[in-house]
Write a structure and sequence with these properties.
Its main location: cytoplasm. The protein is an alpha/beta fold. The protein contains 19 helices and nine strands. The protein binds adenosine-5'-triphosphate.
Length: 478
Amino acid sequence: MSAETAWEQCLEIIQDNISYQKYKSWFEPIQPIKLENNTLTIQVPSQFWYEWLEEHYYSMLRSTLAKVLGDEGKLEYSVVLEKSNNESDTRSVRLPQRPMPPSKEQDLDGYADYSPGKIENPFVIPGIRKTKIDSNLNNSYVFDRYIEGDCNRLARSAAMAIAENPGSNSFNPFFIYGGTGLGKTHLIQSIGNKIKQEHGNEIAVMYISSEGFTNEFVQAIRNNRASEFTMFYRQIDVLIVDDIQFFSGKEKTQEEFFHIFNALHQDGKQLILSSDRAPREISDIEERLISRFSWGLSADLQMPEYETRYAILERKASDNGIELSHDILEFIAHNFKSNVRDLEGAIIKLLAHASLQHVDELDLKMAKRVLKDMVKESNTQISIESIQNYVCDYFGIDTNKVREKTRKQEIVEARQIAMYLAKQFTDSSLKTIGLHFGGRDHSTVIHAISTVEERMQTSNKHKRIVDELHQKIEVASL
Ligand SMILES: Nc1ncnc2c1ncn2[C@@H]1O[C@H](COP(=O)(O)OP(=O)(O)OP(=O)(O)O)[C@@H](O)[C@H]1O
């Protein structure tokens, strides 16, 4: 049997035993490397990943392996190491799976989410009245309202795991980073809100921006209350600091935070940090802090893909009490691609317009008019990629297909139309257009354009399709 086949069989069993979300987050990214002497080697993206699997899925992996390779089957991890400059290295360390204690031979069932060493409420510090601590959390930032997609799956599931088991997990600190308006604050506050919901004042949660922390610290020094400041932060069980990049260049604040960080981490308290860039990319921050930021899990947030943008819009519209038609949602999702805050801005603008103008039902034409300036700002010239999206959406095919080599009739037709429209709507050269379609050369683009033009003259159906798409893109690029 090859490593790929063995791992595929393992994945089938694993899928049946854990939730889809956990499967996608923790098992799909794993690569089978080799199968030798009944030992299957799999590659995991980080040391932390290995620890997480061993901590949470050890028994399940063990039994799965026994089913696929027999009782003597062994698992070895190949861990991709990070270089200090944050690039991943091809070097890897091989780690064996820890041996199974003889008394623990059990069925798969019930072991899938086994989490060892659950400590009962590790956060109660006698004598401290936690009721006094104001968490600073915004109640509307909750997991239920945080739409999941490929762009945030790992970060969201790690955040959920932390909320369920703060402090006693391997994600400490949890460092989340990504561009502006991509949902960092929402996600880190969701952790705090969930912990508060489940534990009330038993667990002291505190959310603060790094600027807020700095200002408080400066005030405390000014009023000779620095030690009270330190004491206060040391009693927090879950400390959430947003936009940590603003500590850059503030040496005294960094030093104070360093000591608070150490004290909390040592006591098994949870630290959650956010930044607009990865730890190593933050300038003017002491090396000892940077290295601590990387101790736990760093996860990034990306701009949501089209389907997630659509789902977010649907959700935001219904939270704001308006119902938007499919056409309008599609229009916004196609045209607002830089961040989620802008998507939200579009909904608010439509809502304001509808209520000021006493409009009961918004239609696409009106929505386009209202959002015209915003669309222009975020999308000055329609891209070849958007044209591909429109065309593929129209034909119900996967966008990647038009960039691949496939010669299937319907894909070839969609590809040719997309090339034709790309020439019509963009200033791109034939060469550039070809490059966007899987590196085809300019003569293929010329051929596509003349084929579409010819067909439009000979077939009404073809003409109608191209005209419809033309109109759709024209409105979108207003
Ligand atoms: N996946 C998502 N599902 C639902 N709403 C989201 C999602 N991602 C972001 N949002 C919403 O987008 C808005 C901006 O998000 P947020 O303030 O958390 O971004 P941020 O990354 O912290 O931005 P900044 O770096 O500018 O502070 C919020 O209203 C948030 O609710």
